[in-house]
Specification:
2-enoyl-CoA Hydratase, Chain A, domain 1; 9 helices
Length: 241
């Protein structure tokens, strides 16, 4: 994780391209620490979450899956941060990465962006990330992509409300967004964000523990172990043979 600062905007960069910015325990801890630092900095009006390499986030690190409670904690930190979080995406987003993306208040995706909820193909389900995804996604699209694991592009991501805007030039598209956030008062931003995130935060309080338990049970199952092993070994899982 790298952090920078640009005229009142903290820029947090997922910077583990060799691991496709997968959510390892270390990356989750670094991201949470960087968000806490941005929250405490009175000069920061907003946060941009971006990435190095061709992947925004590949989801959980399947070679050493983090505790789902930590992923829930990271998503909640983004939603509860008293400053807007803007996702700048121009790369692939998979599985748990979509949950992190959906936690952001505004998201702009470029032409290199692709998205897929691949959990069902691994013997898993988008359990904990449903906390941020289901309030945002078009329900019909959620039914399709949760079940099929199909890949879709930035235009489709915008159509189903996963991202705010699909743009050919991500940085140009972000200019008016960030200008608007820089002009806002800290109190106005915090109060406005509380209004639009209240329902999502309530869902964390009501459903997080159940979804954490479901996720842990799935990861511990024989079928999921086979699915993850097949993925890491670049082979078909047993149920396709």
């Amino acid at each position: 994780m790298r952090a920078g600062h640009d005229r009142g905007v903290a820029v947090l960069t997922l910077d583990a391209p060799a691991n496709r910015n997968a959510l390892s325990a270390a990356l989750v801890a670094e991201a949470r620490a960087a968000l806490a630092e941005a929250a405490a900095d009175d000069t920061v009006r907003a946060v941009v979450l971006t990435h190095t390499g061709s992947t925004f986030c590949a989801g959980a690190d399947l070679s050493a899956p983090p505790d789902p409670r930590e992923i829930v904690g990271l998503m909640r930190d983004v939603v509860a941060l008293p400053k807007p979080v803007v996702a700048r995406v121009d790369g692939h987003v998979r599985a748990g990465g979509l949950g992190l993306l959906a936690a952001c208040d505004i998201a702009v995706a470029g032409p290199a962006s692709t998205f897929a909820l691949t959990e069902s193909r691994l013997g898993l389900a988008p359990a904990v990330i449903s906390l941020t995804l289901l309030p945002r996604l078009d329900p019909v699209a959620a039914n399709r992509y949760y079940l099929t694991g199909e890949r879709f592009d930035a235009a489709e991501a915008a159509r189903i409300s996963l991202v705010t805007l699909a743009a050919e030039d991500v940085d140009r598209a972000l200019v008016p967004v960030l200008d608007g956030l820089r002009r806002a008062s800290p109190q106005g931003l915090a109060a406005s964000k509380r209004l639009v995130t209240a329902t999502v935060l309530n869902s964390f309080d009501q459903y997080a523990e159940d979804l954490i338990a479901r996720s842990a049970a799935l990861f511990a199952s024989d079928e999921a172990r086979e699915g993850m092993a097949a993925f890491l070994e670049r082979r078909d899982p047993a149920w396709l043979r």
